[in-house]
Write a structure and sequence with these properties.
The protein is mainly beta. The chain folds into 2 domains: about 5-65 and about 120-150, Chitinase A, domain 3; about 70-115, Thrombin, subunit H (Beta Barrel). The protein contains 2 helices and 9 strands. The strands form 2 sheets. Strands 1, 2, 3, 4 and 9 form a 5-stranded antiparallel sheet that branches. Strands 5-8-7-6 form a 4-stranded antiparallel sheet, with no helix packed on it. Strand 6 (about 90) and strand 7 form a beta hairpin. The radius of gyration is 19 Å and the shape is elongated.
Length: about 160
C-alpha cells in the first residue's frame, strides 16, 4: 500500500483560544503519512479525513509536543551566558539541546532557561481543512517525505 501525501490548511489555537499558528493565506502544509512529519495526534485524525473535510481536532499535550519536563529547566549564572543584557522571553540555542532555550526568569545573578518546547504540556486545537490527498510517488517514498505540488524539488 502506498503511503498517502496529504495537504491541509490549519489554524492552531491554544486552550485559551489564542491563535498560535495558521497556514491561512499561505500554501497548505503537505506531509507524507507514517514518517513522523507532523505530531502523532494530528496525523492520526487527518488520516481519517477526505478532501474538502473540515474538522476541529483536539490534540492532548502527550500526543502533541509532550508533557513539560521539569529536568529541562536549568539555572545558569549570568556570567556564563553569551551576553549580560538578557530579558525574559529571549531564546538561546545550546549545542546540546535540539530545541531553543527560552529565558523564563532573570535575577541579578542567574538566568533560568527552559528547554521544553514552547508548546510542551499544552493541549492544542487544530482547525483543519484537507485540500488534497494523493498517493506518494516512488521518489517520495524513497526520500521519505513529500515534495509539494508537482512532486519536484524546489531549489
Amino acid at each position: 500500500m502506498k503511503p498517502k501525501v496529504i495537504s491541509f490548511h490549519y489554524t492552531l489555537t491554544d486552550p485559551t483560544g489564542e491563535t498560535l499558528d495558521s497556514s491561512v493565506g499561505k500554501p497548505p502544509l503537505t506531509f507524507m503519512q507514517g514518517v513522523g512529519q507532523i505530531i502523532p495526534g494530528l496525523e492520526a485524525e487527518i488520516g481519517k479525513m477526505k478532501v474538502g473535510d473540515k474538522k476541529k481536532i483536539e490534540v492532548k499535550a502527550g500526543q502533541a509536543y509532550g508533557e513539560r519536563d521539569p529536568q529541562a529547566v536549568i539555572e545558569v549564572p549570568i556570567e556564563k551566558m553569551p551576553k549580560q543584557e538578557i530579558h525574559v522571553g529571549e531564546q538561546f540555542r545550546a549545542a546540546q539541546h535540539p530545541t531553543p532555550l527560552t529565558v523564563t526568569k532573570v535575577t541579578a545573578t542567574h538566568v533560568t532557561l527552559d528547554a521544553n518546547h514552547p508548546l510542551a504540556g499544552m493541549d492544542l486545537t487544530f482547525d483543519v481543512e484537507v485540500t488534497e490527498i494523493r498517493n506518494a510517488t516512488d521518489e517520495e517514498k524513497t526520500h521519505g517525505h513529500a515534495h509539494g505540488p508537482g512532486g519536484h524539488h524546489h531549489h
